[in-house]
Specification:
Helix content is 28%, strand content 25%. It has helices at residues 22-33, 51-57, 60-64, 112-134, 153-164, 229-237, 242-248, 255-265, 325-333; strands spanning 3-7, 10-17, 38-44, 77-81, 84-88, 94-97, 141-151, 171-175, 180-182, 191-192, 202-208, 225-227, 251-253, 274-279, 288-293, 304-309.
C-alpha cells in the first residue's frame, strides 16, 4: 500500500523503498567517505502509465535490497510518486499524469512541484526521526546525490523539477520526454524548462526517432518544436477538421533543445567529447547515435549525453531493451551535484 500525504487539500500517494538496514549504510557511508547520507532516486511514471508498470520496468530497489555484500556506494533510497488521477479508464482504474506546465487544462490546477517537495521532505523527516532514535548523527539523504528518472510525461515533469528546484538535483535521466512545449500549437505560449541554479545537473537524454507521441526532432538541430502526430490524430478523431486539428495539436521542444540547454548550464565544451553512430538500437543492430559533452578540461562530471535510436518508438523499448535500471544507477553514481 502506498504512502499518502495531503497536499493542497488533495490526497497524494507515493511508494518509498529504503535499502534494508539503511541506518548502518548511512554510518558506513560517513565512515568510509565522509558522506552525509545515502543517495535518493525519484522515478516518475509516464502519462496514463500505472506507477507499478514503471516500477516493474525500472526496479531500482532490486539493485540495493539484495543479500550481496555490496559496498556502501551501492545503497540508495527510491521514491515512486503517483501522478494526479484526472479520469478513470474503462476498467475504473485511475489515469494519471503530471502538470508539466504545458500539459493541458485538466492538470494545470495540480501543484506537482510542491507535491514532490513535500514528499521528499516528509520522507527526510521520517528517516531523520529514526536516526535520532538510534543515536546516529548526520543526515539520511545525501543532498549532493538526489537524482531524477522520468519516462515520457514523467521525463517532462523531471525537466520541470530541475528548473523549479535549483541546486537540488545531481543528475537526470530523461527517456522519451521533452523539456518544454505548447499545449495547443496556436493557442498557448511555448513553455521551456531549462536547468537553473549554480550547481551542475548532468543529463542522459534517451529518445527514439520513430516516436509519434513525443517526437524528438533532429539529433543536432535545437531550433524548433515538433508537433505530436498522436495528439493531432486524437483531435481529428474527436470530429475536428484537419485545419482545427492542426491548430489544437500539441507540440514539444525537441530533444536537441534539451541537450543544448543542459550543455549550456553545465559549461560544456562546444565540441562533443565523443560521438558514435554505432550504438545499440531496439532492432538488435548498432545504428543509434550517442554524443557526450564535458567541460573543456574533460572531467567526467558534469556530463551531458544524447542518445537517439532510429528504430525506437514510444513503447517498444521494453521488449527490446539495452538499458536497464543498473545502467541508470551507474550514470547517477558517477554524477553527484557539484558547483559549476
Amino acid at each position: 500500500m502506498p504512502y499518502q500525504l495531503v497536499h493542497n487539500g488533495v490526497v497524494r500517494e507515493f511508494e518509498f523503498y529504503p535499502p534494508v538496514g539503511w541506518p548502518a549504510w548511512v554510518e558506513r557511508a560517513y565512515a568510509e567517505d565522509g558522506r552525509r547520507g545515502l543517495p535518493l532516486i525519484v522515478a516518475l511514471h509516464g502519462g496514463g502509465q500505472a506507477p507499478a508498470t514503471l516500477a516493474g520496468n525500472w526496479p531500482f530497489p532490486l539493485l540495493f535490497n539484495t543479500n550481496d555484500p555490496a559496498n556502501w556506494e551501492d545503497r540508495c533510497f527510491v521514491l515512486y510518486p503517483y501522478g494526479f488521477s484526472y479520469l478513470a479508464d474503462l476498467t475504473g482504474e485511475p489515469v494519471r499524469g503530471w502538470n508539466t506546465g504545458f500539459s493541458g487544462e485538466y492538470l494545470t490546477t495540480q501543484d506537482d512541484v510542491g507535491f514532490v517537495r513535500e514528499m521528499i521532505g516528509a520522507v527526510e523527516r521520517m528517516l531523520q526521526n529514526k536516526l535520532d532514535e538510534l543515536g546516529i548523527h548526520g543526515r539520511a539523504i545525501d543532498v549532493d546525490r538526489r537524482f531524477l528518472f522520468g519516462y515520457s510525461m514523467g521525463g517532462m515533469m523531471a525537466y520541470r523539477l530541475v528548473h523549479e528546484m535549483p541546486n537540488h538535483w545531481g543528475a537526470l535521466w530523461a527517456m522519451s520526454g521533452a523539456y518544454g512545449g505548447r499545449g495547443h500549437d496556436l493557442r498557448t505560449s511555448t513553455v521551456t524548462h531549462p536547468p537553473s541554479g549554480s550547481a551542475s545537473v548532468s543529463l542522459f537524454a534517451h529518445h527514439g526517432e520513430m516516436d509519434p507521441v513525443v517526437p524528438p526532432g533532429p539529433f543536432d538541430d535545437p531550433s524548433g518544436r515538433e508537433v505530436s502526430q498522436s495528439s493531432h490524430d486524437l483531435y481529428a478523431a474527436t470530429g475536428l477538421s484537419m485545419m482545427e486539428a492542426d491548430d489544437y495539436a500539441s507540440s514539444v521542444r525537441n530533444f536537441a533543445a534539451a541537450v543544448l540547454a543542459y550543455r549550456t548550464h553545465n559549461n560544456c565544451a562546444t565540441t562533443a567529447y565523443s560521438h558514435s553512430t554505432a550504438e545499440p538500437d531496439v532492432g538488435g543492430g548498432i545504428t543509434s547515435q550517442k554524443a557526450v559533452w564535458r567541460q573543456d578540461t574533460n572531467p567526467a562530471n558534469p556530463e551531458v549525453v544524447a542518445y537517439l535510436d532510429p528504430l525506437m518508438d514510444h513503447t517498444n523499448f521494453v521488449p527490446n531493451r539495452y538499458f536497464f535500471a543498473s545502467h541508470v544507477w551507474d550514470f547517477f553514481k558517477d554524477h553527484p551535484r557539484i558547483d559549476i
